[in-house]
Each structure stands twice: as structure tokens, then as C-alpha cells.
Amino acid sequence: MTKKPAAAPRQPAKVVHLRKGTTLEMVRFACPDTSQAARISESFGLAIIDTDGIRDLHERLIVETASSLNEGLGERAMQIHLQRIVGAYVGSAHGAGQFYSRAVTEARDATAKVANDVRDEDLDGPVGFDSAAQRKREFAADMALQSHALRMAAEGAVAAYEQVVGERWKPFERPLDNPGQTLDRKAAQVQMAAFG
What we know:
Layout: E1 18-19, H1 24-30, H2 34-44, H3 51-69, H4 75-116, H5 132-165, E2 174-175, H6 183-194
Antiparallel strand pairs: 1-2
């Protein structure tokens, strides 16, 4: 009977932690959709945004840009370039959506304070001046329309990516440098290294 050599112990698989990118679904969650933007425009007397026009224009813009670069870029280079461009649109829309959400929270809080008790800072100002709560509601409405417009630009960019590249856009996920270390620990190490 021949004895089989002992198998070498398996090395544990290396786990690569990724920094998650911003997705279009996150943008859709944070930014108002077309019907909500129309209701906000109507309620606050603001201009109605041409959402289809914004989306279509940005889709055409990126498709035409890709077409003009087609001879100078290979297929993979085009994909990487467009991935970055679309990522910028999606990231911008998401940031605007988060800002809009904070503005709505502040407007709700200010409006609730006015409804609960009469306070001097929440009373209407002199004739021609709005209350602080009204200004916050108007600011939130402006932020709603801005974030909606950027959402539509991002949706157009994502549609263009799929049209040019032939696959659905996904955010780039960058490997974390050292997932076990926090920024504070890294900073402390750098500072201590400076002492020698």
C-alpha cells in the first residue's frame, strides 16, 4: 500500500474589502421623481422643469462625446472613460439629493415648532418678510428641483453608457487601503512617525 503525501494546508482566501460606489438606485431614493418635482413646483409657484429634456440632452451629449472619441479610444478605454463620467453625474445627483433631504428635515422641524407653540423667532416678520419656517420650506423646494434636475441628468448619462458600452453601468468599487484601520489610527501613526 502506498501512502498518499499529505496535502498542503489550504491558505485562507484573501478577502478584499471594497469601498462601495454610489448607485443610480441611491440617487432615485434621495432625489424627487418627476411627479413629486411637479407637485413641489406647483405648490411653491416655481417653474416646471423639463425633466425629459434634461434626461434626453445628457444622454445625447454622452453618446455624441463617445462617438467623437471612438477613433482615439479602444473599447476598454472608452468603457473606463465613460464609467468615470457617468460616475461623476451619479455622484453629483446623490450629493444634491442628500442636501435636499437635510433641507426638508430642517423645514419640517421649523414648521413643527411653529405649529406647536408661538415663539418670537417663528412669528411672521414685518410686512413683506417671511417667517424663518417659510424660508426653510422655500429653500427645500428649490433644493428639490435642483436635485431632481441632477437626477435626470444622471439617468440620461446612465442610459447613454448602456447604449455605448452595451452593458448596464455600475459604480466603480475601489479596494480599501487597509480596511482594519480607521482614519484616526492612520493619522496617529503618521503623527507618531514624525517624532522619529
